[in-house]
């Protein structure tokens, strides 16, 4: 969205080429180094081949687990060494060919790419009978190639994702080998290098494990679907719908940002992709309307992180939960509906109060899109999404649903006369869809190292014991300060466990991708919550939601920093403001732990518990938003803000008595606000 020189906001016009350029600029995971023309063609062909491989297997049958994952990983690691430089300075080097840099790529990178492919494909092509014999008794070749794979995998992850995840993996590997030297409860017999490589390389509990399997089987297909759905115009239709629904109200472009990001999140599980695509239109308009640059960037980034928690795609989380929890896909997306609503509602209500406080207008009739014309132009683009959701709800596999969604996207793109795709654009869609697979594929395989060490050493149970013991000690201390009728020891223990778990999730997410963070925390932290009686699906949603918060939590708030770069705002201030806007996402996970009915699918669901929790959440988030924004009906006084914060905490506690006390606290605030509102015209 843009604005003309007279202050009029122009209609929404999504420039996909500009959005892709911005995404490559701000998302380091898909920014490639300069490539010579020949190298660019080679990389393009390999990326398209990877997409075609996944498209074909999704529709006509997957290969065996290890073979399918091995082929995927061989492409991913081989390509990473061709497109990601050793250091950041490599992005500035010219793509010139020479004897030591064939096609502009160093001989070392070519060697690493070849070594990665050979090491990865060694295991899938070992005969099954022979592999079963060698697990626990690896040959020298197995150990050497396994060691090479670990090294090149860590280097590939460092190049594409950064240092934190490889460092964590190295620490876990060190723990597995030097177990006898560990202190206290962390001590264990230890493993030899050969035993460690055997477990990580030859079994499906390590590198070839569930994390890589989910990325290779589910995530890739839905990312590819999202790319094609955007290319055929579904993203534009979503933005037109968002503008028509929310644009006319106070602070219109900011509310368009929220609704647009929610809709766009249905087809894209990437926070940064959502931020740059929707933000390329809404951020300039928000600034032109009167929002501060920091706030405009924060609104877009906070809204866009909701893409990872919005059904039906939810990034990779939904598909990982299928594997971890052995639950139907429909159960996962049904559980995600209310928490996702709470996140967007929390951002929306703060934006509304901010707009009212600053007297910001909505969009005029001339600035709004013609929804009838938009549907007349783009209605065929809805067909792939409807079919995809229909196939999912019918009980078929997610990758088959993605297959039909991709197929129909291409068909609509080639046949729709109003927005026709060329065969070149189909090629580019296949290429760009595979781009997203590189960083997340390497990260998933590296997470396999961490998960492998956990299963090899049993450290997950030890960490769970340490956390729950510490929480119990804190609960005992606090229990001496508050009446026992308020909080029992078990409730306090769970509360402190949740707080510690949430903090760790955010800290971990500051350095590693959301998908990797979720897998690690689901392996280590979720069992901790299970020890305290939390249902598995609730525990998994808790650690996932807190991991997503890292995208808007400084010091490494990727979505916030991308939005800040587009807005010309201070990145750190943008991250702080985005975190404030996303506080609903901080509160809600605690609510669905203490009142699981909010997730709709838990064992002891009742409508009465659901309504108390739902209404309490809505009111609590509204009170907190008012306190933070300094506005309800008129500006709030300091004493009103204090009462609103206390009321917010009491209202989100899913108990009737605390909710009633919270309601009582906001009565004097409402009376004072109504009185001030009646006097406002006279002022």
Automatic annotation (TrEMBL):
The chain crosses the membrane at residues 38-58, 70-87, 99-123, 135-154, 161-178, 206-229, 329-353, 382-415, 436-457, 463-485, 492-509, 515-534, 541-563, 583-603, 610-633, 645-671. It is found in: Cell inner membrane. The keyword Transferase does not apply. Pfam families: DctM (PF06808). It comes from the Bacteria. Keywords: Cell inner membrane, Cell membrane, Membrane, Transmembrane, Transmembrane helix, Transport. This is TRAP transporter permease. NCBIfam families: TRAP_fused (TIGR02123). The keyword NADP does not apply. Part of the tripartite ATP-independent periplasmic (TRAP) transport system. Residues 149-605 form the TRAP C4-dicarboxylate transport system permease DctM subunit domain. It is a multi-pass membrane protein. It comes from Neorhizobium phenanthreniclasticum.
């Amino acid at each position: 969205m843009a604005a003309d020189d007279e202050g009029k906001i122009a209609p929404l016009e999504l420039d996909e080429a500009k959005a892709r350029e911005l995404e490559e600029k701000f998302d380091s995971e898909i920014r490639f180094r300069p490539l010579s023309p020949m190298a660019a063609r080679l990389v393009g062909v390999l990326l398209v081949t990877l997409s075609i491989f996944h498209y074909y297997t999704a529709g006509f049958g997957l290969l065996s687990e290890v073979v399918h994952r091995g082929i995927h990983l061989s492409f991913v690691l081989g390509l990473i060494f061709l497109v990601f430089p050793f250091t950041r300075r490599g992005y500035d080097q010219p793509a010139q060919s020479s004897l030591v840099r064939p096609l502009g790529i160093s001989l070392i990178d070519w060697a690493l790419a070849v070594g990665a492919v050979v090491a990865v494909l060694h295991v899938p092509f070992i005969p099954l009978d022979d592999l079963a014999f060698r697990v626990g008794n690896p040959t020298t070749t197995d150990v050497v190639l396994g060691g090479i794979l670990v090294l090149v995998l860590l280097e590939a992850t460092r190049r594409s994702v950064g240092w934190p995840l490889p460092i964590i993996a190295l620490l876990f590997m060190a723990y597995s080998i030097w177990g006898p030297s560990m202190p206290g409860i962390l001590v264990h017999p230890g493993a030899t290098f050969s035993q460690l490589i055997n477990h990580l390389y030859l079994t499906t509990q390590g590198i070839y494990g569930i994390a890589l399997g989910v990325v290779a089987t589910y995530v890739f297909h839905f990312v590819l679907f999202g790319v094609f759905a955007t290319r055929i115009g579904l993203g534009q239709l979503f933005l037109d719908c968002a503008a028509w629904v929310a644009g006319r109200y106070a602070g219109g472009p900011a509310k368009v940002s929220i609704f647009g990001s929610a809709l766009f999140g249905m087809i894209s599980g990437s926070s940064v992709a959502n931020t740059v695509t929707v933000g390329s239109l809404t951020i300039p308009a928000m600034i032109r309307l009167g929002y501060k640059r920091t706030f405009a960037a924060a609104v877009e980034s906070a809204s866009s992180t909701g893409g990872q928690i919005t059904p039906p795609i939810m990034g990779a989380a939904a598909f990982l939960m299928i594997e971890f929890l052995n639950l139907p896909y429909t159960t996962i997306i049904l559980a995600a509906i209310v928490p996702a609503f709470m996140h967007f509602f929390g951002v929306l209500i703060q934006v509304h109060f901010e707009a009212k406080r600053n007297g910001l207008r909505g969009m005029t009739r001339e600035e709004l899109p013609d929804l009838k014309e938009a549907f007349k132009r783009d209605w065929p683009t809805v067909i792939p999404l409807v079919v995809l959701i229909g196939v999912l709800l019918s009980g078929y596999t997610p990758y088959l649903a993605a297959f039909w969604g991709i197929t129909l996207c291409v068909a609509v793109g080639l046949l729709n006369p109003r927005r026709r795709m060329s065969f070149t654009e189909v090629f580019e869609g296949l290429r760009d869809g595979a781009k997203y697979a590189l960083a997340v594929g390497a990260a998933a395989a590296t997470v396999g190292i961490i998960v492998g060490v956990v299963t090899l050493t049993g450290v997950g149970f030890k960490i769970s014991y340490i956390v729950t013991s510490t929480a119990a000690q804190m609960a005992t201390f606090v229990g001496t300060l508050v009446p026992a009728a308020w909080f029992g020891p078990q409730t306090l223990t769970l509360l402190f466990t949740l707080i510690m778990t949430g903090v760790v999730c955010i800290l971990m997410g500051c350095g590693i991708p959301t998908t990797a963070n979720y897998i690690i925390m689901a392996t280590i932290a979720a069992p901790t919550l299970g020890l305290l009686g939390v249902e598995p699906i609730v525990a998994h949603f808790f650690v996932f939601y807190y991991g997503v918060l890292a995208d808007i939590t400084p010091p490494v708030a990727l979505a916030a920093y991308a939005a800040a770069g587009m807005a010309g705002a201070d990145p750190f201030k943008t991250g702080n403001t985005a975190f404030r806007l996303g506080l609903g996402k901080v509160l809600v996970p605690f609510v669905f732990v203490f009142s699981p009915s909010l997730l709709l699918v838990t064992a002891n669901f009742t409508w009465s518990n659901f309504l108390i929790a739902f209404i309490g959440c809505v009111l609590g988030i509204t009170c907190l938003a008012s306190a933070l924004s300094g506005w309800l009906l008129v500006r709030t006084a300091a004493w009103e803000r204090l009462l609103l914060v206390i009321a917010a905490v009491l209202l989100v506690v899913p108990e009737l008595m605390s909710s009633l006390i919270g309601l009582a606290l906001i009565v004097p605030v409402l009376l004072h606000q109504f009185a001030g509102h009646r006097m406002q015209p006279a002022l």
